[in-house]
Write a structure and sequence with these properties.
CATH topology: endopeptidase fold (from Nostoc punctiforme)
CATH superfamily: endopeptidase domain like (from Nostoc punctiforme)
Structural class: alpha+beta
Distance between the termini: 64 Å
Strand content: 15-25%
Shape: globular
Helix content: 25-40%
Oligomer: single chain
Number of helices: 7
Largest sheet: 6 strands, antiparallel
Strand order of the largest sheet: 7-12-8-9-10-11
CATH architecture: Alpha-Beta Complex
Length: 251
């Protein structure tokens, strides 16, 4: 009888202990930054030595609604600089491949490669974590150095400031809004002293946000400055420090 009571009490204590623990809390799912979406599978084509050829293909695909962008697959100082084109946003590899096969059959493209969402545009850093992704953003922006500026679009051999930011992020799997003002309202605000590589930096003119660049560390950023000048690297000093509107992180 006494043994039965002991066993019964032990069972009750175990049951109460289990109730006290209850279900373990689960971490909340990761939330995308406001105004930013992650891309699915994309299609990559070409290895053009002539920038104009990449531009023409990107323009043609853009006219078909493919949201195409071209990028330099090698740095400005490379002896043989190559350009590639990426386009599309597909939920599965099969859907991307089917579209690529159709375009190849029509003569629009030739060889192609399906890019998975986690693949970086350059084979330097694998974005296994946020630091890796930020490094890829900086490398991608750096490879645009020397490409001419064009206001209002990402074609005709150039980029405007917000188009450059959008292309750099898109090549790394993130879709930003198109204009600098829209980009400024997305993401998380970052003060000047807490900028990290890959953040965007915004500048005001006449009281409105009108310019954006990609922060690359060392108090400097890469941007498309104005007509007549190629994409370049600048220091956050002088005019840029005086007109700094804020930074934004999208990661």
């Amino acid at each position: 009888m006494r043994m039965g009571r002991v066993l019964g009490c032990a069972a009750l204590l175990l049951a109460l202990a289990g109730c006290a623990r209850g279900p373990q809390p689960q971490p909340p799912p990761a939330q995308a930054q406001p105004g930013v979406t992650r891309l699915g599978y994309t299609i990559q084509v070409g290895a053009f030595a002539n920038l104009d050829n990449a531009v023409r293909l990107a323009d043609t695909l853009q006219s078909l609604g493919e949201n195409a962008t071209y990028y330099a697959a090698s740095a400005q100082e490379s002896p043989r600089r190559l350009y590639r084109v990426r386009f599309g946003n597909f939920p599965t590899r099969e859907a991307a491949r089917a579209r690529a096969v159709d375009l190849r059959a029509s003569g629009m493209i030739q060889d192609f490669y399906i890019v998975a969402p986690e693949e970086p545009p350059l084979p330097r850093t694998s974005p296994k974590d946020e630091d890796g992704l930020r490094a890829n953003l900086v490398d991608t922006a750096g490879n645009y150095l020397g490409v001419p500026y064009l206001w209002g679009g990402t074609s005709d051999a150039g980029f405007d400031c917000s188009g450059l930011a959008m292309a750099v992020y898109r090549l790394n799997g993130l879709q930003l809004p198109r204009t600098s003002r829209e980009q400024f309202t997305a993401g998380t605000a970052v003060p000047l002293g807490r900028l990290r590589k890959g953040d965007l930096v915004f500048f005001r003119h006449s009281g409105r946000v009108s310019h954006v660049g990609i922060y690359v560390g060392g108090d400097s950023f890469i941007h498309a400055p104005k007509r007549g000048r190629s994409i370049s690297r600048e220091s956050l000093t002088g005019w840029y420090r005086d007109h700094f509107a804020g930074g934004r992180s999208y990661l």
